[in-house]
Amino acid sequence: MPAWTSKFELKPGTWVFVPTADSIKTGRELKLEIEQKWRAPEFFYHLRAGGHVKALQAHLGNSRFARLDIKNFFGSINKTRVTRCLKSIFPYPQAREMANISTVLHPVDRNSILPFGFVQSPIIASLCLHRSALGQYLQTLSRRKDLVISVYVDDIILSSDNEHDLTVALTEIKSRATRSNFIMNADK
Fold it and tell me: Which Gene3D superfamilies match (predicted)?
C-alpha cells in the first residue's frame, strides 16, 4: 500500500507526493528520531528558528554575494544514499527500513527518490547533503572568517568582501556538487 494518496508534477521533473495520514504520523516519528541522533550544522537555516530571514540576515555585513540552487534536490537523493547516510547514526537494519519508508518510485524513470511532500524528507535530505562531499566542503567554508554561508533546503548563499575568495569557493562548490551527484541549477 503506497505511503501517499496522490502525486502531481509541480514543474517539469519535480513531483510532489501527498502523504497518507499514517505516513504523516510515521514521518513525524522518523524526523524526531533523526533529530535526537543528528545535529544539523548551524548554517542549515531551514532547520533553525528564524529560517530564511535569519539565513539572509547572516550576509548583511558583506558586499559580495553568490546564490546557488541544487536542481531537483529531493529527487536526486535515492534510497541507497538515504540508507548510507542514516546508517552513520542508526544500525543498518533500522537505516534500511527508514529508507524504505521514506522513499518512493519516481513516476517516470521508476528510480527510488526521496519525495517532496513527506514530513521526514527535509531532514533526511539535509543529512544526505551534510554527509556528501559538497556538504563537507560547506562545513569547511562555514569555519572561515572571511566568508559567510547559509543553506536553506536546496539554496546555498555565500557572501564575502573578497571577490577572489568568493570565486574560488564557488568553483570548488560546483566541483564538489558534481562529485556528490547534485546538479547545480544553471537557471538560478
Answer: 3.30.70.270
The conformational region for residue 40 under phi > 0 = left, psi -120 to 50 = alpha, else beta, is beta
Q: How confident is the model at residue 188 (pLDDT cuts 50, 70, 90)?
A: low
Say what the pTM is: 0.94
CA distance 101 to 30: 9
Residue-wise over 5-14: b if at least 16 C-beta within 10 A, else e?
Answer: eebeeeeeee
151, β-bridge pairs = 44, 156
Distance CA 170, CA 172 (A): 5
pLDDT, tens only, 77-117: 999 999 999 999 999 999 999 999 999 999 988 899 999 99
Grid coordinates representing 126 are 539535509
What are the residues whose beta carbons fall under 8 Å from the beta carbon of 58, sequence distance 6 or more? 43, 45, 148, 150, 159
